[in-house]
Fold:
Amino acid sequence: MSPTTPSTPPIPKQPIGTTFAVAIGVLGVFMALQFLAIASYYLPKIRQQVVESAANPQPAPTQPGQPGQPRQPESTQQQPRTGPDQLLVQRINKLLADSDRAYRIGDYDTALKLIDQVIDTLPTDPSGLLRKARILEKAGRLPDAAGVYAFVASLPGVSPEIRAQAEKKIKMLDVQPAPPTGEPSESSPSEEAPSPSGSTVRDEIGLQPGSVLGIVDSRLRDGAPGTKVLRVAIKSRPGQTIDTRNMKLHVYFFEKDETGEILETNSKVAPQWISPPVNWADNEPELLDVTYNLPPKGSPEGREFAGYVVGIFYNNELQDTRADPGALARKFPLPLYLKQDKPENE
Structure:
């Protein structure tokens, strides 16, 4: 069966007139000119924005808690943690306090072990090093003490005052400094090695580290005929409340007889505070004058003045000592603790 042909022919294609073609062409040219005008106006601004954007890139938005999160206002930022630092400071302070206490009671081995823990953490801290030198000196290890003092004096950042103090101590010890290794040296000091009055290393306040009271000065002068007067300046640690009932000052004068033996005096000794009341309320030293009667000339034993030792106690615990000459402090050592006073009814 042959395909069916339509009964009517398709719509014939109309020819495009010349006027229409010209109109389309003019319209196209006008649109092109308009596009060029717009581009010439906006293109420089677009280029400027692109350059500024490249110079100052904006961070991509992130979810809270993700890396790159925009900074929060200062009031809501998390503050840096200081917990570990505070714990370290507390540990160092406790080690120093325990070492100072062990030193005052004469347990030099314990004091040395504790201070070595501080030095392991702070190897160039002058405070810990000077404490170690003081312990070694008191334990009789003078070359080792001189070695530590020499190390302190060689530290590049140490203050001139501390360097001068360390150098002075080296001269006083008058021994060959040993390397500061912490091991005992082979040489040992003589029992009569000189030790100057008030030679103990002191902190910036002028007191022995860890003590509540300290003797910051002691001077002997001539008094009335046949007497000498020892003036002792006693200072308290700032911020400490001192109960004078718990403070005791012991002063001993010594004499040498015709055989050269050193003996405690039998002469009268009279102490007197210069400016009572004694309370250290203004953080200034309190002054005590101790008058000592010299042995009479031509006495049967031929005695003559040989020196003094003075010590201050608080709560029956030795706080500080002074001696002149220093060898008297070793020949007649003061007790580290005073015996408790017994009640009168016992």
